[in-house]
Amino acid sequence: MKLLANENFPLDSIRLLFQQGFDIKSIGIDYSGITDREVMQIAIKEQRTILTFDRDYGELIFKHFLKPEKGVIYLRLKQFESDEPGKILALLFSNKDFIFERKLTVISADSIRQRSY
Asked: Which of 24, 71, 73, 82 could disulfide-link to 12, CB 3.0 to 4.6 Å?
């Protein structure tokens, strides 16, 4: 699975996912300061799933019709250790019941929702 971690995604979680064998790029390291639209364009071009804490991606998908084929995962966690998002995602990715392509996946402390696009 190819992942694209937005600038707001914790570095410890990026490292954890990389160590577990995921092909992950970091906007904060590789493309610091680019816009959300540019992040979407990279995800589309490179066929990567976006990992973000930024709620604006839902608007880009549903109002502006930028639709990365591999999906967007929006984490709505308020308080967490810096490696916790990576642990949550690694566990989620191991569950074959979830399909992320063409979906906005919203992860909160007590639920996971998906909306197709």
From this structure: 82
Q: What is the pLDDT along the chain (117 residues), one digit of tens a residue?
A: 999 999 999 999 999 999 999 999 999 999 999 999 999 999 999 999 999 999 999 999 999 999 999 999 999 999 999 999 999 999 999 999 999 999 999 999 999 999 999
Q: What distance in Å separates the CA atoms of residue 35 and residue 113, rounded to the nearest whole number?
A: 25
Output the pTM of the full model: 0.96
User: Which residue pairs, CB below 8 angstroms and at least 24 apart, start in 109-115?
Assistant: 109/76, 109/77, 109/78
Rounded distance between C-alpha atoms, residue 53 and residue 97, angstroms: 23
Residues facing 4 on adjacent strands = 25, 50
User: Which residue ranges form the domains of the chain, and what is each CATH number?
Assistant: 2-116 (3.40.50)
